[in-house]
Each structure stands twice: as C-alpha cells, then as structure tokens.
Design goal:
- This protein has 222 residues and is mostly beta strands.
- It has a domain of 64 residues: Nucleic acid-binding proteins (OB fold (Dihydrolipoamide Acetyltransferase, E2P), Beta Barrel), CATH 2.40.50.140.
- It is 0% helix and 17% strand.
- Strands 1-2-3-5-4 form a 5-stranded mixed beta barrel.
- The protein starts with 28 loop residues before the first strand and ends in a 136-residue tail after the last strand.
C-alpha cells in the first residue's frame, strides 16, 4: 500500500511523477476514489494506492464536485471519472452537462419536478407535436412580441378582460351574438358602412343632448 500524495496543481502530470501503482503502460484499473481538488477541468482522485489526475468521461453526464466519491478508471498518465457514486453535498444542485448537442430519444419521456420545472432556453425555444395538451391553475405569459396563426381558433371563457392602448381587427365576415346585454362607452364613436346599414329592434330610441342630424339624398320615415 502506498502513501497517498496529492499532486501539485501547478505541475503537469508526467510519467516520472506517477505512483508505481499506476504504471504508464499497464492495464486500466478501476477505483472508488474521493475527489479532493480540481483545477477547473481535472480532478485529483485520491485512491488507496495513490492520487492521480482524472477528467470526467464523455458518458459521465453528472458533473463531479470536490468531495464526491467517484468510480475512476486509471491507465497510463491519467484516467477518467466514470460515474459519481456518492455526492459530498447532496443538498446542492446536481449538474448534468455534456459538450455539444444532447438528444434524448425514447418511446416516451416524462419529466417530473416535485417543486417545479425551470427551463432557460437562451436564444431559442421550440416545441413540436401533432397533439399537445397543457393544464394550468394559473398561466402568466409575458413578452415583447407575440404572433399566432391558426387554421381554426376556439376560445371559451367565463370572463374575459382585455386592456390595450390600441386595438385593430380585420375580418372577412363577422357575426356577433350577444345573449343578454352589450354596452359601449366611448369619447367618440363612428361607423363607416359602404353599402347598407340597418337596425331592427323591438324598441329603438335615439337621444342626444344637443341635436340629432339625419342627412341624405332621400330620407323616409314610416
């Protein structure tokens, strides 16, 4: 059994400085090791036979932290962290990371966040599905600009309130049916009809504080 000497952070690893337990040309060996320090990319793995610098393997998606116990594979002048066996501080965030693009592929993927799911997508976020269903107790959406395009849009609400500094609507054909009562309040109100305009009511009343003007080439009453 060797004395576990910790490598110097400022010194590069060379074969001459390796403990004899890690021969330069020997077969790969695996250890349960504690990660005692890091230089940002490498970790110093302390085994029962010595200490050696290792880096996370491509398949080790859970990023190690100093103090963790990891399964390491050592050969030649270095080695790899194969997986994290025990986290030193399980209360801290666990980071799953890989360079490049990560793609998850399965028949079905389920994400279950007991206290929430927070997605920070950076500059782009895309969702694609033939059918989608979303259920919320409360939904809040904020943004600078929103564009929606549908072949058919059906919206059913018990109460709707819209507040806008400016609103404009364009329809090819529009039909509105008010079951009970509709009221419009405006400082100024104008309707422009290019062809015909008609009003039919059980009782119709036109009231003005100053005057009522009916103007046309022909006016027929009765």
């Amino acid at each position: 059994m060797m004395t576990a000497n910790t490598p110097d952070l400022g010194s590069p690893v060379d074969e001459a400085s390796l403990p004899k337990a890690f021969p330069a040309n020997g077969p790969a060996r695996q250890y349960h090791a504690r990660l005692v320090m890091s230089d940002g990319r490498r970790y110093c793995a302390l085994t029962g036979e010595g200490a050696i610098w290792v880096v996370p393997a491509a398949g080790c998606l859970l990023q190690p932290s100093v103090g963790d116990i990891a399964l390491v594979s050592v050969t030649g002048g270095g080695g790899y962290v194969l997986s994290v066996l025990e986290r030193a501080k399980p209360e801290q965030d666990a980071v799953v990371s890989t360079p490049g693009t990560l793609r998850l592929q399965a028949d079905k993927v389920k994400v279950d966040g007991r206290h929430g799911v927070d997605i920070a997508a950076g500059s782009e976020f895309a969702l694609r599905a033939h059918n989608a269903s979303m259920q919320y107790g409360t939904l809040r959406v904020e943004g600078t600009s929103m564009h929606a395009r549908w072949t058919q849009h059906v919206q059913v609400t018990k109460q709707r309130i819209e507040i806008s500094d400016k609103a404009e609507s364009h329809f090819g054909h529009s039909t509105r049916r008010i079951a009970t009562h509709e009221e419009v309040t405006a400082t100024s109100y104008r309707q422009l009809v290019s062809r015909d305009w008609s009003v039919r009511a059980g009782t119709a009343r036109l009231v003005a504080d100053d005057r009522v003007v009916i103007d046309g080439n022909a006016v027929q009453i009765g």
